[in-house]
Amino acid sequence: MTFKYDIVVIGAGHAGCEAASAAARMGARTCLVTMDMNKIAQMSCNPAVGGIAKGQIVREVDALGGMMGIVTDRCSLQFRMLNLSKGPAVWSPRAQCDRGKFIWAWREILENTPNLNIWQDQVSELMVEDGEVRGVRTIWGVEIQARCVVLTAGTFLGGLMHIGRKQIPGGRISEPAVDGLTESITRHGIRAGRMKTGTPVRIDRRSVDFSQADRQDGDVGWHHFSFMDVEHTLEQLPCWMFKTNSAVHDILRSGLKDSPLYNGQIQSIGPRYCPSIETKLHTFPDKDEHQLFLEPEGETTNEMYLNGFSSSLPIDIQINALRQIPALRNVEVYRPGYAIEYDYFDPTQLTHTLESKMVKNLFLAGQVNGTTGYEEAAGQGIIAGINAAINCSGGKPFTLGRNEAYIGVLIDDLVTKGVDEPYRMFTSRAEYRILLRQDDADMRLTARSHSLGLASTQRYEKMRKKADEIEHFITFAQNFSIKPALINDALSQIGTTPLERGCRLVDLLGRPGVTIENLTPHIKALAAEVDKIDDRRDETLEAAEIRIKYKGYIERENQVADKMLRLENIKIQGRFDYPNMTQISIEARQKLAAINPVTLAQASRIPGVSPSDVNVMLVLMGR
Fold first, then answer.
1. pLDDT confidence bin for 231, thresholds 50/70/90
2. What CA–CA distances, in Å, run from 182 to 178, 237, 343, 361, 391?
3. What fold characterizes domain 200-338?
4. Strands 214-216 and 160-163, how do they pair?
5. pLDDT tens column, 550-586
6. 161 and 340 in contact (C-beta within 8 Å)?
7. Tens digit of pLDDT for each residue in 382-392?
8. Domain spans of the chain, in order of start
């Protein structure tokens, strides 16, 4: 049997769902191939979306017209804005979700997306002719011809699961690994490697003594992921906190001899920033306790996720150690934690569109590029899907700069620097954090996506209305003068210094502790302006207040970004014979030849390329 499509997406994880949805909505006839339609957008590890920097990526995906934010809002069991005690550059949304409902919400979206078909099967071979992808073949003998292929296979390529000394092939617990596809890809010159990740034990809620745990409720308020209005009906549930202790650690240490991480069974590198509990013991031998979070898996299930206890130790070691924690004295588990090794491909062999440099019209996104996390996968998936659709219909490649989006930082890091461990996004990776806030992702990206035909007109008009209301409010604050007699009593109540003379509202709002919310009851004109905002008022006012309070920082960072953009506009690809450039270091020649950067700015970010090497290139271009 032979099918014909514009685009085939391999894998229906978070990258594959966003890629297929975006490509289809841009008009490309798309086929999404998945091994199990009941596991679409499965949350293989924690059923949570967002977190530090990750939440910003989800809001960017949403602003581009993606679906992860909408699905998260529909399925959220608890929402929290992290880092609120710090500046807005690092405020990060996070939501605990109902795992089962998340799958079905995504499936409903995909099944009702025009131009998109789902095919349940397993891809076994990539079809390539003359260096250009032609489609895929499956284990059932089906040939799916396509102009573009997007590979989003997650941890399934060569997947091998570990619990103690036991090893079982698989891409996820109780799901088969994909064998042979990696070799079908590497024969075309694409380099592959191995990585490792893991997931914690799942616990029966009924066996937990919650009186021995600290309750953690979510935020009460208006925050959400999507910039669109999404109906939310699920009950909001608490998470719970407790700690390990020395008795737990003693039992865990007794099992290290059988740990695949330390007995030579696992050779690949795991995520530095989400380590297993045995790695924590090894890295921090002097710590007597580690924080654990017990989080709900769903609104109606008793299954709970033990965040912070990722492990591949033998089953009896895991359970016996947990029973040394007061809240878990009588714990019953649904399944133990396990580690998994899988194949990934060197992302420096990709362009910024996530197209392979080796095989034309082959795109890669998600964990196959060496990243970890649903959010990083979704961000790559939507960019790959957009560019695959562009390759089918024509148009300018769609890329995002480091000053435009965390997604831009993520992809530039991957294709410029490569990975030697699973890549996780942090706010510290972005040099323009104050420009990439979670509150303004729609202002940064929706217009660009709308011009592609991806972000809907409704979404674009909603963004424009919000932008106009923000500008109107800021203009009001710049022009409205306040006299001391009107406001000093209120300022004393707020705890800030009274005015000695009149000032503009914008200057007063610039003070620490002074907000639109605590000034509004005392200034009638301000209250009237606030009342004029009739759509998502809190979101609009928050964005306006951030713009006012951090105006100087924003302007300074924009200036720095503008200077760097000058280097981004200097195209160097194809202009240098790097191996014979004796004016620069040998390491720089090798790295530049391997990456073949598009711009001078990208060259400057390659590890091993020094500022003096960049200056030499500038001089040579001047000649």
1. confident
2. 8, 41, 7, 17, 24
3. Elongation Factor Tu (Ef-tu); domain 3 (2.40.30)
4. unpaired
5. 999 999 999 988 888 887 888 888 888 999 888 888 8
6. yes
7. 999 999 999 99
8. 200-338, 456-556, 569-622
Three-state DSSP state, 491: helix
Structure tokens at 167: 């090893």
| CATH of region 456-556 | 1.10.10.1800
Name the nearest CA neighbour of 228 among 15, 466, 474: 466
Burial class (CB in 10 A: 0-12, 13-18, 19+), 310: buried
Q: Are 563 and 557 in contact (CB under 8 A)?
A: no
Q: For tokens 């003070």, what's the residue? A: 511
594-615 per-position pLDDT tens digit: 889 988 888 888 888 887 888 8
And the tokens for 360? 């034309």
Q: What is the dihedral of CA 47, 51, 53, 57, to 10 degrees?
A: 40
HSE toward the beta carbon, residue 38, CA cutoff 13 A: 1
- Locus of tokens 């951090």: 550
Whole-prediction pTM value?
Answer: 0.94
Q: Which residue has the tokens 């036991």?
A: 166
Whether 41 and 180 have beta carbons less than 8 Å apart is answered as: no
Report the percentage of the chain scoring pLDDT > 90: 82
Q: Is 27 exposed, middle or buried (0-12, 13-18, 19+ CB in 10 A)?
A: middle
User: 569-622: what fold?
Assistant: DNA polymerase; domain 1 (1.10.150)
Question: Over 70: is that where the pLDDT of 87 sits?
Answer: yes
The string of DSSP letters for 57-96 reads: HHHHHHHTT-SHHHHHHHHEEEEEEETTTS-GGG-EEEEE
Q: Measured between alpha carbons, how far is 491 from 497 in angstroms, rounded to an integer?
A: 7
